[in-house]
Amino acid sequence: MPNATELSEAGVSFAKGSDITSLLDIKFESSGLMTIPCLTIKRDTETILRNLIAYEKQSSDVQLSKYFSHYDVFMNNLIDSEKYVNLLRQKGITVNLMGDDKNLAIILLILTTIQTILAFIGSVK
Questions:
Q1: Which of 91, 109, 111, 117 sits at 20 to 30 Å (Cα–Cα) from 68?
Q2: Is 38 left (phi over 0), alpha (psi -120 to 50) or beta?
Q3: Which residues in the chain come in under a pLDDT of 70?
Q4: Which residue ranges does UniProt annotate as crossing the membrane (predicted)?
């Protein structure tokens, strides 16, 4: 999947979603508008998301969707450095209460790395 800047250069515009019911309430309209729910990064956001992703990966409940894992993969593809975080922050899609944009890019990279490790551990069992 192209990152946020590549999508923007291809004519896709971004907006903060309204009437959001979930993090995955991401919409792409034929006009080229992608609406994405706002992600607010606080001091404990990375820990909470990491634990939820680990729970999803280790759960034997076949009914459980990989909700947070899918969200992380989407956002990590969209944001692969701080300049992409900046683009989405300007549109109100990300709110980073932890400091600079680089922190959010690093958090998403860490979460994706954890998913890869957990997938490997699961395949070795």
A1: 91
A2: beta
A3: 61-64, 118-125
A4: 104-124
Where does residue 96 fall: left (phi above 0), alpha (psi -120 to 50 degrees), or beta otherwise? beta
Q: What is the CA radius of gyration of the chain?
A: 15
CA dist., res. 76 & res. 62, Å (int)? 25
Residue type, 95: V
Strand-pairing partners, residue 16, are 36
For 103-115, b/e burial (b = at least 16 CB within 10 A) is bbbbbbeebbebb
Measured CA to CA, the distance from residue 5 to residue 58 in angstroms comes to 34
Domain ranges of the chain: 38-124
CB 14 within 8 A of CB 86: no
